[in-house]
Amino acid sequence: MGTIDISEQALTSLIRFAASTLPGVHARRCTVSTVSTDVTASSQGFKIAATDPVDVDDVRITLQVALASTVKIPATMVLLRERVGTVVQAQTSITMKQINIVVEDLYDV
Fold it and tell me: How far apart are CA 29 and CA 100, in angstroms?
């Protein structure tokens, strides 16, 4: 299997786009990190080229969002995690290990 190089900026833009496709969700900041320091053993053969290659089997994100005051937060969080994971997997073949979502604000209040 080949490799794909994707910048952290491109990946965070894709994540914010995926989040913003849900009604009532405004994506704000997004950070991407990995826990693993092993950069040679990617079973899928992919790497993220931000500064150094990382193990894409251990990609974790933190996404900060603002929600419409009319949405049901627990149900929206479930849909948001699914949407982000699905879009990133479909576009990059990277499977998110962990998707942390922080609701920073409500709008339309």
Answer: 12
